[in-house]
Design a protein that fits this description.
Chain B: It comes from Rhizobium giardinii. Chain B: This is Membrane bound FAD containing D-sorbitol dehydrogenase. Chain A: This is Iminophenyl-pyruvate dimer synthase domain-containing protein. Chain A: It holds the Pfam family Ferritin-like. Chain A: It comes from Rhizobium giardinii. The complex is a heterodimer of chains A (about 375) and B (about 160). By secondary structure, chain A is mainly α. Chain A has one domain (about 10-270): Ferritin, core subunit, four-helix bundle (Ferritin, Up-down Bundle). In chain A, about 45% of the residues lie in helices and about 5% in strands. Chain A has 9 helices and 5 strands; from the N terminus they run ααββαβββαααααα. In chain A, the strands form 2 sheets. Chain A has a 3-stranded antiparallel sheet with strand order 3-5-4. A two-stranded antiparallel sheet of chain A has the order 1-2. In chain A, strand 4 (about 145) and strand 5 form a beta hairpin. In chain A, helix 1 (about 10-35) packs across helix 8 and helix 3 runs antiparallel to helix 6. The radius of gyration of chain A is 20 Å and the shape is globular. The two termini of chain A are about 25 Å apart. With about 160 residues, chain B is mainly α. Chain B is built from 9 helices and 2 strands; from the N terminus they run H-H-H-H-H-H-E-H-E-H-H. Chain B has a two-stranded antiparallel sheet. Chain B is globular. The chains are: A mainly alpha (about 375), B mainly alpha (about 160). The interface between A and B is medium-sized, with 24 and 23 residues.
Chain lengths: ~375, ~160
């Protein structure tokens, strides 16, 4: 039992909202890096990024399933949902910034940090959350609703808090002859809506399936308790897939973490369009076609989040409409990334993911309310 | 961007009716200019670009007339401009007509060829008809249940 443990159902719902936010927040950086790759090169990297980004979409949906299972209301249109980049994420005793940037060694270093398996060292075991070092006005992903100025040791720890919260609250409910899993089953997103990625989508209806869902998210990201593969031994965890690109070699069965011994793979670190990291619409000249296209993309992305919200709130079949929109995003992102950025010689444009109606960070206000 | 490349983009916008953003978005503009240089030579390319730069600036009927007479209707430039339109739309350079070759002499590189694998994928024709190139840029499971998305026609500058 820690000071940061989840004690109420409302708190658990808020954590799951933040889990959805976190899973979603990995998608823009991965997608941008993926589509920054020039045609004809980096096919291995393209494949790795594509699979991972699809699995992040699975994780987003799984988090929505858990939230729905406990009677929550997924809302991807909440003003604090879409992250502002660079956004901060916990990485052990410090936190780091996740940026929208081109495929590069630097981008890969960040992606490794996102997925890194991390256990607290002995001297921190059992201690509380860690003081944030990034300014309060940046989006803090995986943060604690009651402690916005602090962060978890790792994303794994954030999810463990959720898992423990589910177990604690369900045990409490059980003692009173009830359950926290009161959600309408028809709101669950089921496997027919997920394809082309690893892992499976399943309905969450009780604590067992909820904990399985959390285990899937953690294992696909960082592996199963120090193992490079997920629980089923089928799939290499995201961290180790990114590591393959950095090390230029594939993992194979029996390999130890950090020491892939499979076939070599080629990465062309120059084989990506040079985009300006964390570009904002305000940096693109007014009246330019690029600005118009970047703005239109953001508006469309906002509509897409509205559509997903409706899909996660009892209309799963709307996900079928979401599919072509995602492919449309691919085409638009490619165009944005291939267009030169006016007044920035040698730099190209990029999607900015500034979603209309989302605030930079609602957290500081809420934090002061909590303290007051 | 060099003024030569700017002129190439300008004439390409004029001839294809797609925007600069769309054309640059294919990632192929530089390669198409290089294709023109390779096939018909720098001199004819420069003549084509000069004809574009010399067009009357006023938007309207006079300019459209001038495009017809000084570029599309020009014996030397017309077929080259038409090949450039086809290049943007299909990613393929189509061999110039016999009449052109007989009049101006054969060019060794003037055969029908696809510029690159991505040139096929990025052909404007797919965008123009709201479809996708077979075997690439898949639009996703179930997308066939929705009507094709055809881009709005650019605002016609002609006041006529």
């Amino acid at each position: 039992m820690y000071s940061y443990s989840i004690r109420t159902l409302d708190e658990l719902k808020e954590f799951l909202h933040r889990a959805m936010q976190l899973e979603h927040a990995t998608i823009p950086p991965y997608l941008t890096a993926l589509y920054s790759i020039k045609p004809g090169v980096n096919q291995d990297a393209t494949q790795v990024l594509r699979v991972i980004v699809v699995e992040e979409m699975l994780h987003l949906t799984i988090a929505a399933n858990i939230l729905n299972a406990i009677g929550g209301t997924p809302d991807l249109t909440r003003p604090d949902f879409a992250a502002s980049y660079p956004a901060s994420l916990p990485d052990g005793e410090t936190d780091f910034k996740v940026s929208i940037q081109a495929f590069s060694r630097e981008a890969l270093a960040t992606f490794l940090k996102i997925e890194r398996p991390a256990q607290r060292p002995k001297h921190l075991a059992g201690k509380g959350l860690i003081q944030r070092k990034t300014p309060a006005n940046t989006t803090a992903l995986g943060s604690h609703p009651r402690h916005e100025d602090l962060h978890f040791y790792s994303i794994g720890e954030f999810y463990s808090a959720i898992a423990e919260g589910i177990e604690y609250l369900e045990a409490e409910a059980y003692r009173q002859g009830t359950t926290i899993f009161t959600g309408d089953r028809s709101r669950q997103i089921t496997p027919e809506y997920y394809y082309s990625g690893g892992g499976t989508l399943f309905p969450v209806t009780d604590w067992k399936s909820a904990l399985e869902a959390i285990a899937l998210i953690i294992e696909q990201g960082e592996g199963d308790g120090g193992d490079i593969y997920d629980n089923d031994e089928h799939e290499l965890a995201h961290y180790y897939r990114f590591e393959e690109l950095v090390k230029g070699r594939y993992y194979q069965k029996g390999d130890q973490p950090g020491h892939p011994t499979g076939p070599q793979l080629q990465v062309d670190w120059e084989g990506a369009y040079p985009i300006k990291p964390n570009l904002k619409v305000a940096e693109i000249p007014e009246g330019s076609e690029l600005r118009e296209a970047a703005t239109a993309f953001n508006a469309r992305y906002g509509e897409f989040l509205q559509l997903l919200t409706r899909a996660y709130n009892g209309q799963p079949s709307l996900l079928l409409e979401a599919v072509p929109i995602m492919f449309e995003f691919r085409n638009t992102i490619l165009e944005l990334i291939r267009n030169p950025l006016p007044n920035h010689p040698g730099m190209n444009g990029s999607p900015t993911y500034e979603i209309p109606g989302s605030t930079k960070q609602a957290a500081p206000t809420r934090q002061s309310e909590v303290i007051a | 961007m060099s003024s030569r490349f700017e002129a190439f983009l300008g004439i390409s916008v004029e001839l294809t009716a797609f925007s600069r953003f769309d054309l640059l978005g294919t990632g192929l503009a530089e390669r198409y200019l290089a294709t023109l240089d390779k096939v018909v030579g720098g001199e004819i390319t420069d003549t084509l670009l000069a004809a574009f730069v010399a067009l009357p600036p006023a938007e309207g009927e006079a300019r459209i007339q001038a495009v017809r007479t000084t570029i599309l209707g020009n014996e030397l430039l017309g077929d080259v401009a038409r090949a450039l339109i086809k290049l943007w739309y299909s990613g393929t350079w189509f061999e110039l007509p016999c009449a052109w070759t007989e009049r101006f002499g054969p060019r060794p590189a003037d055969t029908t060829f696809i510029v690159s694998p991505d040139a096929y994928v990025e052909g404007l024709l797919w965008k123009a008809i709201g479809a996708h190139p077979a075997g690439a840029k898949a639009p996703g499971f179930g997308s066939w249940a929705f009507p094709p998305k055809i881009p709005a026609l650019p605002e016609l500058v002609s006041k006529a």
